[in-house]
Amino acid sequence: MLQEICNAFKKFELDEASISKTLSKLDMNFKVKSSNLVTINKVLQIHFKYQYSYYDPLIIASALQNECSILYSEELHHN
Questions:
Q1: Each residue of 26-69: pLDDT tens digit?
Q2: What separation in angstroms does the CA of 54 have from each of 43, 44, 77?
């Protein structure tokens, strides 16, 4: 998700132009998917079941909806 990548760049204190350029390159080279109502409903299910904050379930739901076989995250633990 581009939002998560943007947040990661902020941690490294990169300037706006560098972040924007990198996001554009990612958009050109990968399929970038948007969230929809199906995604948000899955987010809510995960949120209430596991008591995660909103953004972690958003990552998980997006990965599930787009049939990702691997999910990398600094916040979540294996399995």
A1: 889 988 888 889 999 999 999 999 998 888 898 899 999 999 89
A2: 7, 8, 16
Parse the chain into domains and list their residue ranges.
1-32, 36-79
Interatomic CA distance for residues 41 and 74, integer angstroms: 24
Which tokens in the block code for residue 31?
């399929």
Indicate the pTM of the whole model: 0.67
Task: Please name the amino acid found at residue 41.
Answer: N
CB 9 within 8 A of CB 18: yes
Write the DSSP string, 12-58: TT--HHHHHHHHHHHHHHSPPPPP-HHHHHHHHHHHHHH---SHHHH
